[in-house]
Design brief:
Blueprint lengths: L1 H5 L11 H8 L17 E5 L4 H11 L3 E6 L14 E2 L2 E2 H5 L5 E5 L4 H12 L3 E4 L5 H4 L4 H7 L4 E6 L14 H7 L20 H24 L3 E6 H7 L2 H10 L16 E5 L4 E5 L3 H10 L3 H4 L7 H6 L1 H12 L4 H8 L6 E3 L3 H4 L3 H5 L3 E6 L3 E6 L23 H8 L4 H10 L2 E2 L5
Parallel strand pairs: 1-2, 1-6, 2-5, 6-7, 7-8
Antiparallel strand pairs: 3-4, 5-14, 9-10, 10-11, 12-13
Helix pairs in contact: 3-9, 9-10
Enzyme class: transferase
Subcellular location: Mitochondrion
Pfam family, one: CoA_transf_3
Length: 436
């Protein structure tokens, strides 16, 4: 359904200048033909770096969009140098969020480079960037500039704090935004120091917000025929994701604290140390708590008035957790997993990465995606989280080399001639990867 509704978004069908129609035509599905993935025919011009933006555009690429990643000649995306670990000369960090993309290397500070960006925008559906507000506008590539040459464009800006306001000029980094938004304040062991989550969840949440916003804007453009500007930022994304923690404060002025693996409002709902590892167990209602007590051979605890319901268990948290913790220490993790199996109680081990990717459900859900990279051979990354009944998110293209597709894009998408291409290469306005 989504694919059929997005088909009119294709550049060929937007009434673009005839000089660009022929070059764009190859990207579009045939009229009345099978589309396959829902974003087939949608072109994304991606000027983002690091994590939030690339994560958003990678998800769009997984759904069939053509993603043209614009990189700085020579160095490319910042994350290309983030390591170790590296596979050959390639940063594993970069490889993790840049599949299904083409790379064009352009010097944006050169007026000729900015001109190429405008030409690409004119035959694209979406423009995504994560520069500090005003920086692209100074190059003639802000929303107002691009809107003049591409009124159909969905222009998504990803920043640290938003397009306006007292902090809008600050650089946006996950850890800082997580701190300002309160996430670090509520993360860590009880009575301990604030802790950064083990993966950049503020960046990733922002990428998912941007991904959804772009999809919504494309659907609205199908109705109105007009593009729009999307303001997506780390601070807003993380504050929105505070959900019930924020609501507790806004409605009850309750200032939360750090609970480690525990939960402020549900007991027991946390990790417990076993003889050889850890297990997380959650009792969301009184029946589940009674089942936990039965499995632990502590049936009498479930009848104690101090623990008869969740409210009482929260009030008497410390004593109850002490009793449960002592019992969990008596057996190995595998034994507890066997005893909880089929009980109806939510439970699971705290897995290492090795255990995660040996987990039977992870393997069943096909969450490992393998590709053949042009310089380092076979690589593996976490695959898409969602399955669809009408199509498969499979056969991914490997993350590109810097400027791997520069000449291809300039020739096939914009119709540049060989003499013009050579002049751009010689002057350093664009670069093509030497491997190709």
């Amino acid at each position: 359904m989504l694919g059929s509704r997005l088909a009119p978004l294709c550049p060929v069908l937007r009434g673009l200048p005839p000089t660009r129609l022929t070059a764009s035509r190859g990207n579009c599905p045939p009229p009345g033909g099978s589309i396959g993935k829902p974003l087939t025919g949608v072109r994304i011009l991606d000027l983002t770096r690091v994590l939030a933006g690339p994560f958003a555009t990678m998800n769009l690429g997984d759904l069939g969009a053509e993603v043209i990643k614009v990189e700085k000649p020579g160095t490319g995306d910042d994350t290309r140098s983030w390591g170790p670990p590296f596979v050959g000369n390639e940063s594993v960090y970069f490889l993790s969020v840049n599949r299904n993309k083409k790379s064009i290397a352009i010097d944006l500070k050169n007026p000729k480079g900015a001109k190429i960006i405008k030409e690409l925008a004119a035959v694209s559906d979406v423009f995504v960037e994560n520069y500090i507000p005003g920086k692209l506008a100074a190059m003639g590539l802000g929303y107002e500039n691009i809107n003049k040459v591409a009124p159909q464009i969905v222009y998504c800006s990803i920043t640290g704090y938003g397009q306006t306001g007292p902090k809008c000029q600050r650089a946006g980094y996950d850890s800082v935004a997580a701190a300002v938004s309160g996430l670090l304040h509520i993360t860590g062991t009880e009575g301990g120091e604030p802790v950064r989550p083990g993966v950049a969840m503020t960046d990733l949440a922002t990428g998912l917000y941007a991904y959804g916003a772009i999809m919504a804007a494309l659907l609205q453009r199908h109705t109105t025929g007009k593009g729009m500007h999307i303001d997506c930022n780390l601070l807003s994304s993380q504050v929105a994701c505070l959900t019930y923690i924020a609501s507790n404060f806004l409605n009850c002025k309750t200032e939360t604290k750090r609970w480690g693996t525990g939960h402020a409002s549900i007991v027991p709902y946390q990790g417990f140390k076993t003889k050889d590892g850890y297990i997380v167990v959650g009792a969301g209602n009184d029946n589940q708590f009674a089942t936990v007590c039965k499995i632990l051979n502590l049936t009498e605890i479930s009848h104690d008035p101090k623990y008869k319901n969740n409210q009482q268990r929260v009030l008497n948290r410390k004593e109850l957790i002490g009793i449960l913790s002592a019992r969990f220490l008596e057996e190995e993790t595998t034994k507890w997993l066997e005893l909880f199996e089929g009980s109806g109680v939510p439970y699971g081990p705290i897995n290492s990465m090795k255990q995660v990717f040996a987990d039977s459900q992870v393997l069943h859900n096909e969450l490992v995606m393998e590709m053949n990279h042009p310089t380092v051979g076979k690589i593996a990354v976490p695959g898409p989280a969602v399955r669809y009944s009408q199509f498969q998110v499979s056969e991914p293209k490997p993350p590109p080399l810097i400027g791997q597709h520069t000449l291809e894009i300039l020739k096939d998408t914009l119709g540049y001639k060989d003499d013009d291409l050579q002049e751009l290469l010689n002057s350093g306005v664009v670069a093509q990867h030497e491997h190709i």
